[in-house]
């Protein structure tokens, strides 16, 4: 773990990259979510075409102690298809907005995947044996003539090539009028929540025809709508507690024991606005795009357009730490508003306790160490292709004379955004998604 | 979805101006910048309407920005100034086109089964009854900030005189629908030619009390301008005029 080794910074090395090499990005290949499972052995991605691709880590090779197992494709399946809502004359996109893994209980793996309207529970199971020696059927499946059956035998299992099958076990549909932005599995592992722009619903994993509405911020008069829900997550340990963030930069913590409809928050986290930084874009950049609890549940992290904030659940009036992701963009907000980049929703993730990571533009991503207060900017690019070569830190020159190896703000490519990142639950392995490629980086092992 | 560049009318990138031809002139005034931002936001909201599934969060944020600007402009009296400017007929027509296109999308949302546009507001949980009791703000309501959101996502509820326009709008919409996507875009590119034109559009709207159609644009009426929304006959004539324009183009 970082920090345990005397505070040495991690040295990140390129490990693998998955996805097409072309510069021409097929729309369906745009990665829309990345998530490790609870052991870290599996890494799932969802894309705009409604597909889920799961990578599996190879078992560590004892002789090759200088690298951890590589991730290879384990299963690919079409999770969601495009739909047409005839009632509203609307197309429903098949893009996978979120994937969340269930903890493993038996041989099979389960995950929840969701598009704008429908959540599905998928079972991923392995088959490496098949029965042979049926009495009534030939090996190719044709039925035998019963008159030719003179003896009886017991079919036996024989090994076969490994096949990984994904099958939808539950479909949770028709509960969201607006677009689903989050799903979060409760620590009871029996229920989960799904959040759209105005409502949050609670489901039982076994029950698909019913869900409970636990938050509803839709105003009676839609003309009065000024705020939407942007993300929601269950507390990692307390099964009756969850938080949801808003487009006005607030986070509300709710306790489901207080009432059936959690319209009144137990806590409201909001930082007072800095009057010196006020502009017409203040509200837009304060909109929270992601919220994540630390593993302990004592802290939570929020991402807004320019910064990452760490909140102590015991202190509502301001975050305990704020990290600037790309402050040099503050003077460019009008242009970013014009080209819609200001509405990009960046996610963030923890290593669990003390390092946080989030993406930026130009295929840069940033890490902040809460202990040392040091931060680093790295780039996900095919140019750093050699495994075990330490990544070179990047620097953006905000103004003035550009030093060698620095890149000026105006040269940044705003089409190359890293919105989705994930950190292995146990090891220093990270998955970083560019538009259509998935990069895997590891720390340098000695 | 990219809006035409604002080059040097924007709040930022001022350092770009220095050393260039534009830099020799004065940096645009705050008022001009603010106006440009307002125009840009309105265009974004209009473009919103034409998308298959507008992003509600984005729309809310843009609408809030517009409201902020309006409030500030009302407070420092800039709003009054805009009213005193006048404009010609041509810009009025273009304004009406914008309005009709804007409205067409909403009409579609009212329940016609035409793909390509949706409403935020049709709950299939069945509280239609409740929703229909909400009414869209009419032109007579002069609280500028309040009126705006209604045209963004409150699509369900017809204006009082909507019924009269229904037929003409159907025609317009079918015309639009039959066109290739390119030509629809052309219609729009005509609309957002430049921000000064949009300025003209808005000012044209202010001075014409009959233009009571589009709530969103109405919000820029000055508090003293009580736009009427009930002159159906003249509106219908204008609509026919618009249909002709669209059909010919």
Itemize the secondary structure elements and their pairings.
The complex is a heterodimer of chains A (446) and B (249).
Chain A: E1 12-18, E2 31-36, E3 42-47, E4 51-57, E5 71-78, E6 83-85, E7 90-92, E8 98-101, E9 109-114, E10 119-132, E11 156-172, E12 182-185, E13 191-195, E14 199-204, E15 207-216, E16 229-234, E17 241-246, E18 251-255, E19 267-269, H1 282-286, E20 290-293, E21 299-303, E22 307-312, E23 321-324, H2 333-338, E24 348-350, E25 355-359, E26 364-369, E27 375-379, E28 395-397, E29 406-408, E30 420-423, E31 429-433, E32 438-443
Chain B: H1 14-17, H2 21-24, H3 30-50, H4 56-75, H5 78-84, H6 89-109, H7 128-132, H8 144-153, H9 162-178, H10 181-191, H11 195-207, H12 215-218, H13 232-248
Helix pairs in contact in B: 3-4, 3-11, 4-8, 6-9, 6-11, 9-13
Entry summary:
The complex is a heterodimer of chains A (446) and B (249). Chain A is an all-beta fold.
Question: Would you mind describing this structure in some detail?
Answer:
The complex is a heterodimer of chains A (446) and B (249). Chain A has 446 residues and is mainly β. Chain A has a domain at 12-42 and 90-99 and 173-443: Methylamine Dehydrogenase, Chain H (7 Propeller). Helices cover 2% and strands 41% of the residues of chain A. Chain A has 2 helices and 32 strands. Chain A has helices at residues 282-286, 333-338, and strands spanning 12-18, 31-36, 42-47, 51-57, 71-78, 83-85, 90-92, 98-101, 109-114, 119-132, 156-172, 182-185, 191-195, 199-204, 207-216, 229-234, 241-246, 251-255, 267-269, 290-293, 299-303, 307-312, 321-324, 348-350, 355-359, 364-369, 375-379, 395-397, 406-408, 420-423, 429-433, 438-443. In chain A, a hairpin with a 4-residue loop joins β31 (429-433) and β32. The longest helix of chain A is centred in the C-terminal third of the chain and has 6 residues, at 333-338. The radius of gyration of chain A is 24 Å and the shape is globular. Chain A starts with 11 loop residues before the first strand and ends with a strand. The model of chain A is unreliable at 1-7 (pLDDT under 50). With 249 residues, chain B is mainly alpha-helical. Chain B has a domain at 26-101. Chain B has helices at 14-17, 21-24, 30-50, 56-75, 78-84, 89-109, 128-132, 144-153, 162-178, 181-191, 195-207, 215-218, 232-248. Chain B is globular, with a radius of gyration of 18 Å. The two termini of chain B are 24 Å apart. The model of chain B is unreliable at 1-10, 13-25 and 85-232 (pLDDT under 50). At the A-B interface, β7 and α2 of A face α3, α4 and α8 of B.
């Amino acid at each position: 773990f970082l920090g345990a080794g005397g505070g040495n910074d991690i040295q990140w090395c390129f490990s693998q990259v998955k996805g097409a090499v072309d510069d021409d990005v097929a729309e369906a290949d745009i990665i829309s979510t990345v998530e490790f499972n609870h052991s870290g052995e599996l890494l799932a991605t969802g894309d705009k075409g409604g597909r889920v691709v799961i990578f599996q880590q190879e078992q560590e090779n004892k002789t090759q102690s200088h690298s951890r197992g590589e991730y290879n494709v384990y299963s690919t399946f079409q999770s969601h298809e495009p739909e047409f809502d005839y009632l509203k004359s609307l197309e429903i996109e098949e893009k996978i907005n979120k994937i969340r893994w269930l903890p493993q209980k038996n041989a099979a793996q389960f995950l929840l995947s969701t598009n704008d309207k429908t959540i599905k529970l998928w079972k991923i199971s392995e088959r490496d044996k098949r029965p042979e020696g049926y009495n009534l059927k030939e090996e190719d499946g044709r039925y035998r003539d019963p008159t030719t059956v003179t003896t009886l035998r017991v079919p036996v299992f024989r090994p076969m090539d490994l096949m990984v099958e994904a099958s939808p076990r539950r479909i949770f549909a028709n509960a969201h009028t607006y677009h689903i932005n989050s799903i979060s599995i409760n620590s009871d592992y029996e229920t989960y929540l799904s959040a759209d722009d105005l409502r949050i619903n609670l489901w039982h994993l076994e029950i698909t025809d019913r869900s409970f509405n636990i938050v509803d911020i839709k105003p009676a008069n839609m003309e009065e709508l000024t705020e939407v829900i942007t993300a929601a997550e269950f507390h990692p340990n307390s099964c009756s507690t969850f938080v949801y963030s808003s487009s006005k930069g607030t986070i509300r913590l709710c306790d489901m024991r207080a009432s059936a409809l959690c319209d009144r928050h137990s806590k409201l986290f909001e930082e007072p606005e800095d009057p010196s930084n006020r502009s017409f874009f203040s509200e837009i950049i304060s909109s929270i795009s992601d919220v994540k609890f630390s593993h302990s549940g004592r802290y939570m992290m929020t991402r807004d357009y320019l910064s990452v904030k760490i909140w102590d659940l015991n202190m509502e009036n301001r975050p305990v730490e704020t990290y600037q992701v790309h402050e040099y963009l503050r003077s460019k907000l009008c242009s970013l508003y014009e080209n819609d980049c200001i509405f990009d929703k960046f996610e963030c993730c923890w290593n669990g306790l003390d390092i946080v990571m989030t993406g930026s533009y130009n295929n840069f991503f940033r890490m902040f160490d809460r202990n040392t207060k040091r931060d680093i900017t790295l780039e996900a690019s095919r140019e750093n292709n050699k495994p075990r070569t330490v990544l070179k830190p990047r620097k953006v020159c905000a103004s003035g004379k550009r030093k060698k190896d620095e890149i000026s703000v105006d040269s940044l490519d705003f089409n190359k955004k890293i919105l989705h990142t994930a950190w292995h639950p146990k090891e220093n392995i990270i998955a970083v998604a560019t538009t259509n490629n998935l990069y895997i980086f590891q720390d340098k092992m000695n | 979805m990219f809006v035409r560049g604002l080059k040097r009318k924007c709040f930022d990138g001022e350092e770009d101006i220095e050393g260039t031809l534009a830099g020799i002139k004065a940096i645009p005034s705050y008022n001009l910048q603010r106006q440009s931002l307002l125009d840009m936001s309105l265009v974004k909201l209009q473009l919103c309407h034409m998308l298959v599934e507008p992003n509600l969060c984005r729309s809310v944020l843009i609408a809030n920005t517009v409201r902020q600007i309006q409030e500030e402009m009302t407070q420092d009296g800039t709003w009054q100034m805009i009213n005193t400017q006048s404009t010609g007929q041509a810009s009025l027509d273009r304004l009406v086109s914008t309005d009709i296109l804007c409205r067409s999308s909403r009409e579609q949302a009212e329940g016609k089964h035409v793909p390509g546009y949706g409403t935020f507001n049709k709950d299939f949980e069945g509280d239609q009854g409740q929703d229909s009791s909400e009414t869209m703000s009419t032109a007579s309501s002069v609280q500028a900030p309040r009126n705006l959101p209604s045209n963004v996502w409150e699509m369900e509820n017809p204006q009082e005189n909507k019924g009269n326009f229904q037929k003409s709008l159907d025609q317009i919409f079918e015309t639009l629908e039959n066109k290739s996507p390119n030509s629809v875009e052309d219609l729009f590119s005509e609309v957002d030619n430049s921000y000064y034109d949009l300025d003209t559009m808005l000012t044209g709207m202010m001075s014409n009390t009959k233009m009571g159609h589009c709530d969103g644009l109405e919000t820029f009426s000055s508090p003293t301008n009580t736009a009427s929304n009930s002159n159906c006959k003249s509106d219908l004539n204008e609509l026919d005029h618009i249909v002709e324009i669209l059909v010919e183009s």
